[in-house]
Amino acid sequence: MLERFSLTTSKENAEQTLHEISEQFKAFKQDSPVFESWDKHGEIIIAENEAELIQVSDEIAGEHIHVHCQNYEEIGNQLNNFGSLFLGENSSVVFSDKVSGTNHTLPTNKASRFTGGLWVGTYLKVATFQEISGEGIDLLANHSVQQSNIEGLHGHKMSAFNRL
Description:
With 164 residues, this protein is mainly alpha-helical. It has helices spanning 11-25, 33-41, 50-60, 72-78, 93-98, 135-151, 154-161; strands at residues 4-8, 42-46, 64-67, 84-87. The strands form two sheets. The protein has a two-stranded parallel sheet with strand order 1-2. A two-stranded parallel ribbon has the order 3-4.
């Protein structure tokens, strides 16, 4: 689902944004998908303050977040959940989509809460291994026995205990 949100702390800014959207729409043909997209998924949200604005933005976890404000770097540093972040009025999403080289295969539907955009590491297999010896055995086994006991996992407890 394509979501179009505008977040602000100012009612006046929200009204100006809505007016500007109406003005921008005049440049589109009547059969453009922009109208349906905005009608179905567009929303202007007025937050009480910047802290709430950041919280709401992170809840939305948008694919593209474009920060337009005087302190855009400060706000940008506080945001956590986004597919790609665009700071300042000149950092247009279209540059990323078309030519600037950042990734355009981004998480949608709030997935940026737990993942980022597609990158080369997505295609790499990560295999972990362990080799425990010496003093590490006693240290880890003792803790494992205690933790397994707390969890009621007798088999785990015995496996750790047998290595003491």
